[in-house]
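Archive entry: two folds, one per protein. Generate the first.
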Amino acid sequence: MILRTATYHALHRSFVQRVFVFFSFMLSSFVVGLRVRNVDLVWGTSPPIFQGWTAWTLARLKRVPFLFEVRDLWPTFAIAVGVLRNRTLIRLSEWLERFLYRHADRVMVNSPGFIAHVTGRGARRVELVPNGADPGMFDPADDGAAFRTSHRLTNKFVVLYAGAHGLSNDLGVVLEAAKILQEATVTSEVTVTFLGDGKEKPGLQAQAERMGLTNVLFLPPLPKKEMITALAGADACLAILKPIEEYKTTYPNKVFDYMAAGRPVVLAIDGVIREVVEAAGCGVFAQPGDPAALANAIWALASDPAHSREMGLRGRRYVETHFNRSMLAEKLAHILEEMTA
């Protein structure tokens, strides 16, 4: 059963308004949580980190174990990218982060890059349940003809970026790379497709128009189930973040979906996710923040489609073996059973 709570609505607005959203959910979820009976465990998740306080409080009131899941290193990422600047809010967030790590019965992270961070701030027992994908959702043999035809992408080498269009995603670098590709006559068939939404999207569209880009396409977000068709229609898929040291710790979920779909990865993120892509042999790395390096990585795949397809299939096999969501679910179930025993 899922219980929904009322929150302040401010999707893709200012950071201050998003904080209001976080605090409204923190309070409303606490009220709803108090009414729930026969609780065996309280599972809190961050970000936003403020709801972790709600989860810890409910766990102590109901005298049950508290599992704290860390999906992103908040507030560290928000500070690094510059969206969290208020000193009072920074101190409050960092204090709350350490408090939750110390007082959680277990802390669960989705990337090995997070382990040192959380243990260094007081986490006593850390469980790694990494991001992964469900290979059964995807058919790597699907050529995505319907998607390509509907968006006039037939006979193009399609590089797909799927996800948030936010400050952290550094998509302006992708536009610069598209400009380089467009000016190289041999790459006229490469089209970069942006699929998704976010605060930066209108600005990116305006920038693409000012640059005179004819090899980029902006599409609205799709439901998760329809993403299968979109990924099938891609020849390669792009994952990118700003060149910030903290982002080297991340396991972006989209990379595992790309791999499960059997598509080679253009990766402009260094760190632990680069280790996965290189171990699988399923993609090309480009130095984050470097448009020329990104353009070269895209062209390396576009110039050898047969090799690109083989790289994609390697990624598929690697996910099946190491990051299959069914196996990860078994590990999570074991953790929950241990905690509630």
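Generate the second and append.
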Amino acid sequence: MWDILGKSLEVPVHQLLGGACRDKIRIYAHVGGRTPEECSRNALSKAEQGFTALKTVVFDAVRIVDTLSVVNRAVEKFRAMRDAVGPDVDIGIDCHGRLSPAMAVRMAKALEPYYPMFLEEPCLPENVDTMAVVARSTSIPIATGERLFTKWGFREILEKQAASILQPDVCHAGGILECKKIAAMAETYYAAIAPHNPLGPIALAACIQLDACIPNFLIQEQVTLGEGYLVKPFTVEGGYIIPPKEPGLGIELDDELVKEKIYDGGWETPRLYHEDGSVADW
């Protein structure tokens, strides 16, 4: 509806929301690897492509209380990436809620010397008091939000200062306007917004319109710039996307290309297990 309204008035959506407060939108790329050497190569490759920020996962299943070697392996991967890209590239860590609060505290302490941009979902977000304990234990900013919905879902996080970076998903958390309200709430707590978006280019286009007009925007997640979907895919310049000036969301779908990607309804849920066969949080 925002796209339709913007097109009818011949203005971009961010103009309907009060106007842009920035000229470009910083984005990050996903990197990873099974070994420190692979992590290093992949991180350097993204940095050489012009990305100034990356996000990675440095561990798989972690027991409620796990060994020192598990922590050391995670640190080795992250240290390899930091050594590869240097101090001018930010690297966030996505924990996927895989850590218990006890291991989150230990892992954060071990990773702290290498200056992660943030720890995303160091533990599951349902128990906000527990996440607040983790946040108070470390200087690394805590990020969360992909499993929270609407402004009420984020209220307690902000009130208890359990995270300083919120990651609402415009496709899950009530849309563009609801996410703008969440951003306004976060602003009163000096918290930043880094919208969650592991989805497609239409979701990215909606995020970019939101990002352009919120003062406390930090960085945008993306996995595709629209190649094979959009008539004019987004382009990255120095780690940034320039918000489109075209009306609405500023994009046009390539119908012929999209036809080839019609979803058949199939889905295989990712599975992760501990060594003893018990189910781990993915």
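Annotation attached to the second fold: The mean pLDDT is 96. The first strand starts at residue 25 and ends at 31.
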